[in-house]
Amino acid sequence: MADWTLTNGVWTLTPAAGGSEYDKTLTIIDLTDGSWTLYDPDGLIDTTYGTNGATFASDFNTIQFNNLAVGSSNYNWVGSVHRAPRWYKTLTINGNDVAGEDTLTGVFRIEDDDTVSDFNRRLILGWSEDPTAVAASGTIITAASYNRSEGSAPLHGAFSYQSDSSISDANGAYVVANLMRKKYADLGGGYYIIYNSSDSVLRVGTAGGTLGFNNAGVTMKLIVGVGPRLNTSIIPAGSLFKVKLSYLASTIVTT
Amino acid sequence: MKVDYSSLIKDVANASLDENGDDFFVEGYSLKICLSYDEVDALLSAYDPTSSTSPSAADSRIIARAILNALKKYKES
């Protein structure tokens, strides 16, 4: 039997524990809804645009960038330095903050609007242990991923720790990645499916996980990280990135 | 040593760090190589990274032929 719970004045219908669920819908991410914090250590986001650099309409977030004249490995999320801009908030499920020790599973969906293609770009959407860290050893990210060069096919995939694995398909419209993680087992990707605009499957891929991290006592955060695609990619001032993001997350009792 | 042929895909982009800790970005093919404990021990015991003639031609061919045969079959299929 499902349960009704009251949190901060809002009643929520919670499915019965131990059951499976049919046709779950994903939660749309609105970076302007007041629940997200922007952390942008080197000022790549134009915060004079919209709400902290983003607007939201018809389920799509549009983000505006400042000029990045010289590419840098600091900003493309791949590698040990993570100084790219990111929005984050505490991951809460049915009123519960999620701990790093929880076995966490989730589905993340990324859909880029390729009619807005101002620069060679990259995005990650997933979980982070510390989204205010500036090194992979602190952020500890597991995420779905997207990257694209202007005029080339989009790539969709998954990201773990400091590595990204993605597949190129000219007809790729969006990616749905099934991710899983737990303290000591930052397992990225697991599996992802790339769909076309008719919701047919185009490609499937996997991304390996990374073992051995041990940040104690963390509360898991959702993270939306953006930046240039490669360490040579630049960003012209005023560039826009328009993207629809959604997710579904659950903690699992494995015993 | 075997190439997991079912793992071979193209159009994949891998962005990560290499064994020296340097960033790399490779777009193209990706495949998984499976080696037994004994094979790894034998290959490493015969390998001298400071020698320009190491690994031996025989060891090199074992590795190269496994990869090339898989790629050749994939390209021709």
What does this structure look like?
By secondary structure, chain A is an all-beta fold. Chain A has one domain: Jelly Rolls (Sandwich), CATH 2.60.120. Chain A has one helix and 21 strands. The radius of gyration of chain A is 18 Å and the shape is globular. The model of chain A has no long low-confidence stretch (mean pLDDT 91). The model of chain B has no long low-confidence stretch (mean pLDDT 92). Chain B contains two helices and two strands; from the N terminus they run E-E-H-H. Chain B has one domain. A two-stranded antiparallel sheet of chain B has the order 1-2. Chain B has 77 residues and is α+β, with helices and mostly antiparallel strands. Chains A and B meet through strand 14 of A and strand 1 and strand 2 of B.
Secondary structure layout plus pairing:
The complex is a heterodimer of chains A (255) and B (77).
Chain A: E1 3-7, E2 10-14, E3 27-28, E4 37-39, E5 54-57, E6 60-64, E7 86-90, E8 92-93, E9 96-97, E10 103-112, E11 121-128, H1 136-139, E12 141-148, E13 155-160, E14 163-168, E15 174-181, E16 185-186, E17 191-195, E18 201-205, E19 210-211, E20 221-228, E21 240-252
Antiparallel strand pairs in A: 1-2, 3-21, 4-7, 5-6, 6-21, 7-20, 8-9, 10-15, 10-21, 11-12, 11-20, 12-13, 13-14, 15-17, 16-19, 17-18
Chain B: E1 2-17, E2 23-34, H1 37-45, H2 57-76
Antiparallel strand pairs in B: 1-2
